[in-house]
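Q: Here's a chain of 77 amino acids. Please give me its 3D structure as tokens.
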Amino acid sequence: MRLSEFNRAVENEFGAAYGGQLVRELVIVELGSRTVEQALAAGVPPRDAWFALCEAMDVPMARRHGAGLVDPAKRTG
């Protein structure tokens, strides 16, 4: 998962405003008792941060995998 895919997944799952707030403020033990923003800055892979955020927020498994990918029908080129 790329950072852009992570950001898209967060926005799609939680909305832009709430998702941004979660990334900045929610401290997650699995990320070393850091926020997602701090963990990403420290080098935690976006995929690991996404799964930790999903676990913390009880996102159903069906919505965790493949999140953030662009719909092939919407790709250009």
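Q: Can you summarize the key feature?
A: Residues 3-67 form one domain.
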